[in-house]
Design brief:
The complex is a heterodimer of chains A (about 260) and B (about 210). With about 260 residues, chain A is of the alpha/beta class. Chain A is built from ten helices and eleven strands. Chain A has a single domain, classed as TIM Barrel (Alpha-Beta Barrel), CATH 3.20.20.70. The longest helix of chain B has 17 residues. The chains are: A alpha/beta (about 260), B alpha/beta (about 210).
Chain lengths: ~260, ~210
């Protein structure tokens, strides 16, 4: 009787279409995020993240329509991120049917955005997403923006501590060093962040094989997130959960029958 | 007449709730209308965010009167998340006490845990004789909250049938769901709990025809 660790799939969405290849068995690639969201829900995913990678004004309306259609057909929690810079952006997304929003660069630029959203809707709706990597700072990790291309002189641990004080209800910790390597999550950084993190912590970046997920949870993560390894079909949600069960990690798991 | 009305008072992620009811082949409408909410076979009270803010919204649509009158007439009401919390006498948030709808004795308070919010799927200690968890007692349900009621005890239990109280644990035990005659409530989100959540909604819909 304990809270299960979550397995999360992240979809990059641009102009209402999934970008990057998503490859589900028996599924024609039409690029509709709702279709993939349904497939992931059927596969036992615990949460979905839609990341709006274009996040222009016109694109925002398309994203809201995607969220509406998802909420109508997919009965698992949905978090939406990308280009959220005001309380009214959040209101529109929540009304459309998502459960949480994630903020990244806009919160670095304006940290008070976190407290504004938390005061209006509660901490549970706001996930702070950060792209961190090794660097010259007190903790040895710094914050980057623009997908890791721009390095700031902002210490990762300091920023996380400040964001939690402001009301962030969850930390999505993406390792720029590990991202794309497929050599596993950045366990050292996860352990360091866990020490100061009093809200749920999502590990992101670096998953390459089934056996990469359990160590991230043992290092302190409450949830593990992956994108391309799930989309490519290289790893299934079922395989990850089965491995977590073998490692005696609590998960929501019912074996896939087909 | 609609089978189900989801009470529209400006709070709650209602789209999935509406669809979860429709998926179970019942007609449903989002409404703030007093008579519609009173007359529907079943009424759902959603809720997200702060206890005090939800109470303000509920007062504006006279929810207290709607719920009182429905329960007296044995007409089912289902509270979800903060929609469950407001059924208690009061809620504490950030050192401030707010009055609830007071259908149940007890207070809603922060969960005593090193990591909050309590976010994700958790299992339920289902009380014996549950209709709510019929066929899904072993399943897990999605929680997204930091506050909860820990205790529900009627002061004079000799005159009433005791409610079924189902618990969950996140470092400490708290109330995950209640079945109390026509008043049911869940701290978790059945509309976000996959097939098990849809089945729970269906279990509730089945009581609409009995009552």
């Amino acid at each position: 009787m304990t809270l299960s660790k979550r397995v999360i799939a992240c979809l990059d969405v641009k102009n209402g279409k999934v970008v990057k290849g998503v490859n589900f068995e028996n599924l024609v690639q039409i690029g509709d995020p709702v279709v993939f969201a349904e497939a992931y829900a059927g596969a036992g995913v615990d949460e979905l993240v839609f990341l709006d990678v274009a996040a222009s004004v016109e694109n925002r309306k398309t994203m809201i329509e995607v969220v509406e259609r998802t909420a109508e057909n997919v009965f698992v929690p949905l978090c939406v991120g990308g280009g959220i810079s005001s309380v009214s952006d959040v209101l529109l997304l929540l009304k459309a049917g998502c459960d949480k929003v994630s903020v990244n660069t806009s919160a670095v630029k304006n940290p008070l955005l976190i407290s504004q959203i938390a005061e209006k809707f509660g901490s549970q709706v706001i996930t702070l997403s950060i792209d961190a990597k090794k660097g010259n700072s007190e903790s040895g990790y710094v914050i980057t923006t623009h997908g890791g291309n721009k390095t700031l002189e902002l210490d990762a641990i300091k920023w996380i501590t400040q964001a939690i004080e402001l009301g962030a209800g969850e930390i999505l910790l993406n390792s720029i060093d590990a991202d794309g390597t497929k050599h596993g999550f950045d366990l050292e950084m996860l352990r360091l962040v866990r020490e100061v993190c009093t809200v749920p912590l999502i590990a992101s970046g670096g998953a390459g094989q089934v056996s990469d997920f359990a160590p991230a949870i043992m290092a302190g993560a409450d949830a593990v997130l992956a994108a391309s390894v799930f989309h490519s079909g290289q790893i299934t949600i079922d395989e990850v959960k089965k491995d977590l069960v073998l490692n005696k990690i609590p998960v929501r798991y019912s074996p896939q029958t087909n | 007449m609609n089978d189900v009305v989801v009470l529209d008072y400006g709070f709650g992620n209602v789209r999935s709730v509406l669809r979860a009811v429709e998926k179970n082949k019942a007609s449903v409408k989002l409404s703030a209308d007093f008579n519609e909410a009173l007359e529907a076979k079943g009424l759902i009270i959603p809720g997200v965010g702060a206890f005090a803010a939800c109470m303000k919204g509920l007062e504006q649509v006279r929810a207290n009167e709607i719920i009182d009158r429905r329960l007296v007439a044995n007409k089912p009401v289902l509270g979800i998340c903060v929609g469950m919390q407001v059924m208690f006498e009061s809620g504490w948030e950030h050192g401030i006490k707010s009055e609830g709808l007071g259908q149940w004795p007890g207070i809603v308070d922060q969960i005593n845990a090193p990591v909050l919010p309590h976010m994700g799927f958790n299992s339920i200690e289902v009380a014996i004789g549950s209709k709510m968890f019929s066929e899904i007692a072993q399943e897990q349900f999605y929680f997204l909250h930091s506050f909860a009621a820990k205790k529900l005890e009627f002061r004079d239990s000799s005159k009433i049938i005791n409610p079924l109280i189902h618990y969950a644990t996140h470092f400490e035990q708290f109330i995950a769901a209640v079945e109390n005659g026509p008043l049911w409530a869940t701290q978790f989100h059945p509309e976000k709990s996959g097939p098990a959540g849809l089945k729970l909604i269906n279990n509730w819909l089945e009581t609409l025809d009995e009552k």
